[in-house]
Amino acid sequence: MKRASRTRAADAIEIYDTTLRDGSQAEGVSYSVQDKLLIAERLDKLGVDYIEGGWPGSNPKDAAFFAKASKTRFKHAELVAFGSTCRARKNAARDANLRSLIDAGTRSVTLFGKCWDLHVRDVFKVALSENLRMVFDSVRFLKRSGKKVLFDAEHFFDGYRADPDYALDVCRAAIDGGATTVILCDTNGGSMPWEVSAAVSEFRRRFPEAGIGIHTHNDSGLAVANALAAVREGAIQVQGTINGQGERCGNLDLVTAAADLHFKMGKRVLAHDGLKRLTETSRFVYEISNQILQNQQPYVGSSAFAHKGGVHIDAVLKNARTYEHLVPEAVGNQRRLLTSELSGKTNIVMKASHFADRLSKESPKIRRIHRKIQELENEGYQFEAAEASLELLIRKVLKKTKPLFQLLDYKVVVVTKGGAAPTSEATIRLKVGKAEEHTAALGDGPVNALDSALRKALIPFYPKLASMRLSDFKVRVLDQKSGTAAKVRVFVVSQDHKGVWTTVGISTNLIEASWNALVDSIEYKILKR
Predict the structure, then answer these.
(1) How do residues 66-122 score in pLDDT, each as one tens digit?
(2) Quick check: helix, strand or coil at residue 233?
(3) Could you read off the pLDDT of 460-498 as tens digits, one per residue?
(4) Radius of gyration for the chain, computed over Cα atoms and rounded to the nearest angstrom
(5) Taking residues 39-48, what's their average pLDDT?
(6) Domain 14-272 and domain 405-461 have a common topology
(7) What are the residue boundaries of the structural domains of the chain, listed by start?
């Protein structure tokens, strides 16, 4: 758990990550101890300053994490344990929660206490003075135990609106107890940027000696804006989670905030080349959290630097600044030129240039590809979300690929016995060259069974297929008025250790549409470098 020493430059903002605690409270997210260790290592590589590992006094999993993390040497980040003040009318030195923070073995701890008189009266049900005592005694006990204490002033902004003097008195109790940094928390996420600015400014006037942090939630869609407002008023630490995952509407998205702080406000954030790792870190956390990537996430989403309109694409190729506020590579992302019936021929030329001699927009081949795309999209295909299928289409029109296998037939059977869950079995016959393969596989559903059987048949000929897996499957009914005879569009998302790609299939038969998308996915994997 040791880390390299560091000093903070005057224009540097500390990045404090709480993905492992606040982020784990997001609906549908549950981390194992191993998950938390993997994320912590990736956060250290990203260059964050603090990693909040969890609340060791609240559950065995977090205690186990700190025990294992103590054997890890972080290159930059400092691991922090999180917990609450002592209980009402209890001696801090005898409080089990505070003892667990000491036992976690971290150099620094983050302690939270309530700044809103509503919580003190209605939840704690103690006198306001007793809450001040709990904060002061708890911070002082940890400080005397050799810990650096960061104080999370929970519900600070709500408390400041209700009774500013009391909210500031709570912060004073923490500072007098020995807290080095007071983190002002918009716990309910309902504050406006101008309210945050005014409150932080007053805090700074009252306590010029204290370091100021900001912890915001996104219930009003303003978590990042509120944090930036606090930094303008003197905050030196920003707390949040990767991708903004967290309870309710989530926390501040550290990915967006870090990029904004550096590129828009000129602040130093993240160590080494951390900014260039934002995209890969964002996607890594989505994967570990079993969450769907948000395509339109600022800076790192797959659509963040995607261009679809022909006029836009033409302008971007001449001067990227015309439609991009930042070079995508600065955050580890890349530009994407989407192809659809709304697009011109320029982006088709760009895509085709990867596997054909340079072609002009007026080339008969380019016109043929453009016409084919328009025809297919009129049938319901959508290539801007399925670039792997688009690449295969271009290759086939340009005759830059050959059939990798020939389907003879396939069959899918779904069997239900009694009250048991249904099982699916797919049987496939195909030819690769002159060899014929006949395989079968079980699956959680018909598409999963087809995918397993197809790869089982092809892996002996194309071993690289063993490293890919189907990671998402989406179905859209195109003409709902047709009922069960409606066309469906299927998107299949596949991935391996190097990337993610999407393919598309259309049919009035769900299985056939799925098969078409699966075949494209397999062919793309075989052909891609």
Answers:
(1) 999 988 889 999 999 999 999 999 999 999 999 999 999 999 999 999 999 999 999
(2) coil
(3) 999 999 988 887 888 888 765 655 567 888 988 888 766
(4) 28
(5) 96
(6) no
(7) 14-272, 306-397, 405-461
CATH of 405-461, one of 2.40.10, 3.90.1570, 3.30.160, 2.60.40: 3.30.160
Stronger pLDDT, 308 or 330, i.e. the higher one: 330
Nearest in space to 42 (alpha carbons), one of 295, 235, 242: 242
Instruction: Output the CA angle 27-304-344, nearest 5 degrees.
Output: 135
Is residue 142 within 8 Å of residue 98, measured between CB atoms? yes
> Is residue 170 within 8 Å of 140, Cβ to Cβ?
no
Instruction: Enter the tokens of residue 445.
Output: 């559903």
Q: Measured between alpha carbons, how far is 144 from 242 in angstroms, rounded to an integer?
A: 33
pLDDT for the residue 528: 77
Please tell me the predicted confidence (pLDDT) of residue 403: 85
**Average pLDDT taken over every residue of the chain:** 90
- With H, G, I as helix, E, B as strand and everything else as coil, classify residue 291: coil
- pLDDT tier, 23 (very low <50, low <70, confident <90, very high otherwise): very high
- Token pair 């784990």 is found at 24
Superfamily of domain 14-272: Aldolase class I (3.20.20.70)
The SS3 assignment for 472 reads strand
pLDDT of residue 345: 63
The pLDDT-based confidence of 4 (bands split at 50, 70, 90) is very low
Cα angle 131, 133, 134; round to 5: 65
Does residue 154 contact residue 185 with C-beta atoms inside 8 Å?
yes
Q: Torsion-angle region of residue 94: left (phi > 0), alpha (psi -120 to 50) or beta? A: alpha
- Tell me which residues are annotated as active site: 312
Strands 423-432 and 406-415: antiparallel
Percent residues over pLDDT 90 in the chain = 65
Sign of dihedral through CA atoms 425, 426, 427, 433?
Answer: negative
Q: Across the strands, what pairs with 436?
A: 431
In the prediction, which pLDDT does 5 show?
46
CA–CA dist 480, 312 (Å, integer): 33
Place of tokens 């570990």: 288
Angle (deg, nearest 10), helices 164-177 and 128-144: 20
The pLDDT assigned to 7 comes to 59
Pairwise CA distance, residues 97 & 86, whole Å? 7
Tell me the DSSP string of 115-147: --HHHIIIII-S-HHHHHHHHHHHHHHHHHTT-
Residue 306 CA to chain centroid, in angstroms? 18
Contact 427, 407 (CB under 8 A): no
Render 348-384 in DSSP notation, one character per residue: HHHHHTTSSS---TT-HHHHHHHHHHHHHHHHT---T
3-class SS at 55?
coil
Count each helix (H run) and each strand (E run) in the chain, helices first.
17, 16
How far is C-alpha 216 from the chain's CA centre?
17
Q: Are 325 and 371 in contact (CB under 8 A)?
A: no
Bridge partners of residue 428, in order along the sequence:
410, 439
